[in-house]
UniProtKB/TrEMBL annotation:
InterPro entries in UniProt: DUF3991
Annotated ranges, domain DUF3991: 141-209
Superkingdom assignment: Bacteria
Name of the protein described by the UniProt record: DUF3991 domain-containing protein
């Protein structure tokens, strides 16, 4: 078949390929297979495909996709280039032409039978059966002794219903949507890190270090719940601040929920967003994404990250704690933290 080279003909072909080629077909051609169990836990509208440790979720009836572990998302053209960044648009068009009209086989990825195959309980049911960590419990000791969180921060999070104690010393951090509905939990412990399966999935962990009486005029977004608690422990400007965590990689639904929360905060006078992400490449990506979302809703935003490369806010907190125990508190970046956030400065600190 000959393909015309006029701009109009090229655009028609792009539209044809975008509508005619299912993203699932592209993934199967690249060696991905459907994870039926994970798909069933999410929704039939979101098909989860795996290739070794990689995962891609197909949505919009095969017309869209997103990477639950990163920022990748888009249409079938972006998918081909995401899987092989060396391909230009001409290479992508050539590959997609051969896939027109094909349907995905939905061949299931082979899984080893074991604990992961047992029926999973509703995370909301598990959450409601648990209580907040108490002083001296395994999760309390993990958070205060290993993670270095102050007792009062852990206690406040528990009192607000944002923190529960799971089995084997794990701490559970509840995620809720913009309407306050529970959707799942981040789980962290000495030997475990993950997010609850089943349910709606990641939205936002959030808590108020000031007791929650004043309206929220300052939204702090971090990448993990322990970072949100750590940042609050370091922060002098707690009044009116909601400390949140995205739990890492975000789905389109999670991003839409965060934008709703931003809109709610933006309705308050002098409202602002503090993007408190890690000092690494992933943090750079999140910072750009969150700043763009804030601009869309008219919310002022600024980024602050730990000074050390690859550091997160819990590492900063533990460094401060060790310095205090040794009799010397590090000068940077902690002494600048409150100054930067309180002054309205937009630049990231040095």
């Amino acid at each position: 078949m000959a393909y015309a080279s006029s701009p109009e003909a090229q655009q028609r072909e792009l539209d044809e390929l975008r509508n005619a080629v299912n993203c699932a077909v592209v993934l199967e051609k690249a060696g991905f297979r459907l994870d039926r169990q994970a798909t069933a836990q999410r929704s039939a509208r979101n098909l989860k495909f795996r290739r070794d440790s990689e995962a891609i979720i197909v949505n919009h009836d095969g017309k869209g996709w997103w990477d639950p572990k990163g920022d990748g998302k888009g249409d079938v053209f972006k998918l081909v280039q995401y899987l092989d960044p060396s391909k230009n648009l001409g290479h992508v068009r050539q590959e997609l032409r051969a896939l027109i009209g094909r349907s995905p086989t939905l061949e299931v990825v082979e899984r080893t039978k074991g604990a992961a195959d047992r029926p999973r309980r509703d995370p909301a049911e598990l959450w409601n059966r648990r209580t907040a960590p108490g002083q001296g419990t395994a999760a309390w000791r993990y958070l205060t002794e290993i993670r270095g969180l102050p007792d009062h921060i852990v206690a406040i999070a528990g009192q607000q219903g944002a923190l529960k104690e799971g089995p084997h010393g794990t701490a559970w951090f509840g995620h809720r949507d913009a309407d306050g509905q529970f959707t799942g939990m981040e789980m962290r412990g000495p030997d475990y890190k993950g997010f609850s399966t089943g349910g709606v999935g990641k939205r936002l962990f959030g808590f108020r270090a000031d007791g929650g009486e004043a309206p929220v005029t300052r939204l702090v977004v971090t990448e993990a719940a322990i970072d949100a608690l750590s940042f609050a422990a370091l922060d002098r400007f707690q009044k009116g601040t909601l400390y949140t965590s995205t739990g890492g990689g975000m789905s389109p639904e999670s991003e839409a929920n965060l934008k709703r929360v931003m809109m709610q905060v933006a309705a308050q006078p002098e409202a602002r967003l503090v993007v408190a992400v890690d000092n690494d490449l992933q943090g750079d990506r999140y910072a750009g994404k969150f700043a763009a979302m804030a601009r869309d809703v008219g919310l002022w935003s600024g980024r602050i990250s730990p000074k050390g490369p690859e550091e997160d806010w819990n590492a900063v907190l533990r460094t401060r704690r060790e310095g205090m125990q040794a009799g010397s508190v590090p000068v940077a970046p902690l002494c600048r933290l409150s100054e930067v956030l309180g002054s309205g400065a937009k630049a990231q600190p040095e």
